[in-house]
From TrEMBL:
Keywords: Glycosyltransferase, Transferase. Residues 112-288 form the Glycosyltransferase subfamily 4-like N-terminal domain. InterPro entries: Glyco_trans_1 (IPR001296), Glyco_trans_4-like_N (IPR028098), Glycosyltransferase_grp1 (IPR050194). The keyword Zinc does not apply. It comes from Actinomadura fibrosa. Residues 67-98 are annotated as: Disordered. Pfam families: Glyco_trans_4_4, Glycos_transf_1. This is Glycosyltransferase family 4 protein. Coiled coil: none annotated. Residues 302-472 form the Glycosyl transferase family domain.
Length: 493
């Protein structure tokens, strides 16, 4: 397929044109794809972490998006659909197509974001009877350097559509227009009743432009706050920085322009309402789990041997993307304190991300027994859960952690694993201290060491907490249960 090499060459040229200093890191990432020891060594290199784009260029692009005419000003009525079947206050009937717009997706990207997308799409099809399709952002997955240029893939019967142009657009305004052009073919083919955009504002902009062109309602699902994630990644970042202010303004504008806003928890709902979005158009659809996670955990004795974890050593771990705000450094420091006090534990850290190299060096420097597995297939996660005595969520007290509720601890709770988490607002929504888990002080290794010690030496307490957590998930947090919340969001469109 000629489109693939043309696009990839255009992508490399654009990156080097934007910032020639990124060339060494780009070369290291390309070498990291080579099989064997060389590739493995390159993947562990600090240069394998992509260099952030220049802030000046980022803020210039944000200003351009804000200056661009709104896809649909807040409060402006849509052009009515000739059939008269849309925007009537009733949820779409069974069999109605819905088109979602997301940043990345399975099978190429396995993360909490993509798991939620997939499980929601499955549940919408199975429970609500909708014909849900998913479209990924412009250029994905070629924009990640992968060679997969298929225009459509199916995962468990869910169709995923790729919007792949011949060349990457030169600026984000053109990217929104091009995305709407390519997705317009899907709209004409599928005739969806609802356009459902998922974070971030670029996905919302594409959906809103399509909504304007075709007279369709738009739901914007806010799964996080991009500006707050950015704020948490560098102590030098502040709320007064242009990137923070402009990104927040863009996100807020997209929320206001959408017909309905969906989000993950009450802390997020309150934040969105505080920005002036009418409370009556904000709906909460929390994270959930597939019913398979409620089954007894599999026997993982062979995996434990494979990972070199002794049978008699307590194991504390997590599944996560390795970003600074996840607070994994606090967990490593707490493990070092426990070892010094004669309570050695093994950390099982499943996942990957820009902080992985630094965390590996930290664990080695402290002499902590830690197993870093990298990313594992979605279907294998429960085998790793089965090794754990305690699941940890050591998130920092950053603003993003106070607001955004993660998916991974709910999966662990479904398996009956006791969860210990940082005492931040978003985690209080899923962890009731002493009942469905334990809360402790964020960014405090001493507090974490004490709480872990109490759980490790109280098997009966761990069992009771794990059982209570599993029953709570069974009653309230399966994907089938939470997906019903989309009925209301779609109905007001």
């Amino acid at each position: 397929m000629l489109r693939k090499p043309v696009y990839l060459l255009g992508l490399v040229w654009r990156q080097l044109r934007d910032d020639p200093g990124r060339a060494p890191r780009l070369a290291v990432r390309l070498l990291g794809r080579v099989p064997g020891p060389l590739g493995a060594r390159m993947r562990r290199s600090r240069l394998a972490v992509p260099r952030p784009r220049a802030v000046q260029r980022e803020t210039a692009e944000l200003r351009a998006l804000l200056a661009h005419a709104s896809a649909r000003p807040a409060g402006q009525a849509r052009t009515p659909d000739p059939s008269g079947s849309r925007g009537t206050g009733a949820a779409p009937p069974s069999g109605t197509p819905v088109l979602q717009f997301v940043t990345n997706a399975l099978p190429r990207t396995n993360a909490g974001y993509t798991v939620r997308t997939h499980r929601i799409a499955l549940a919408q099809r199975e429970v609500l009877g909708l014909d849900t399709h998913v479209a990924t952002r412009l250029g994905y997955p070629l924009s990640q350097g992968t060679g997969d240029a298929r225009p459509r893939v199916e995962v468990d019967g869910v169709p995923y559509h790729r919007l792949i142009p011949w060349l990457p657009p030169s600026n984000p305004v053109r990217a929104v227009d091009k995305g709407a052009d390519l997705a317009g073919r899907l709209v004409r083919e599928l005739r969806p009743a609802v356009l459902h955009a998922v974070s971030n504002h670029l996905n919302a902009a594409v959906a809103l432009e399509l909504g304007r062109r075709h007279g369709l309602p738009v739901v914007y699902e806010v799964r996080g706050f991009l500006e707050d994630s950015w704020l948490s990644r560098d102590p030098a970042h502040t709320e007064a920085d242009d990137f923070y202010r402009l990104t927040r303004e863009l996100e807020t504008r997209r929320m206001a322009e959408a017909d309905a806003v969906v989000t993950l928890g009450e802390a997020m709902r309150a934040e969105i309402a505080s920005r002036g979005v009418p409370a009556e158009k904000i709906f909460t659809v929390p994270n959930g789990v597939d019913e398979a996670f409620l089954q007894p955990l599999p026997d993982a004795a062979d995996l434990r041997v494979e990972l070199g974890i002794p049978a008699d050593v307590p194991v504390v771990g997590l599944t996560s993307s390795f970003y600074g705000y996840e607070g994994i450094d606090t967990l490593i420091d707490a493990a070092a304190l426990l070892r010094d006090r004669g309570t050695p534990i093994t950390l099982l850290l499943v996942g990957d991300g820009p902080e992985r190299g630094a965390l590996e060096r930290r664990a080695a420097g402290h002499g902590v027994s830690a197993v870093f597995t990298g990313r594992v297939p979605m279907g294998s996660v429960r085998r790793y859960h089965a090794i754990l005595d305690v699941f940890a969520v050591p998130r920092r007290a950053d603003r993003v952690c106070q607001l955004v509720t993660p998916l991974k601890p709910i999966e662990a709770m479904a398996g009956g694993i006791p969860v210990i988490a940082s005492d931040v607002k978003a985690l209080r929504e899923i962890v009731e201290p002493g009942v469905t888990g334990t809360l402790t002080v964020p960014e405090d290794p001493e507090a974490w060491a004490i709480s872990l010690d109490e759980l490790i030496y109280s098997p009966e307490r761990r069992r009771k907490i794990g059982q209570s957590a599993r029953e709570w998930v069974r009653a309230e947090r399966t994907w089938r249960a939470v997906t019903a919340g989309y009925r209301e969001a779609y109905a007001i469109t």
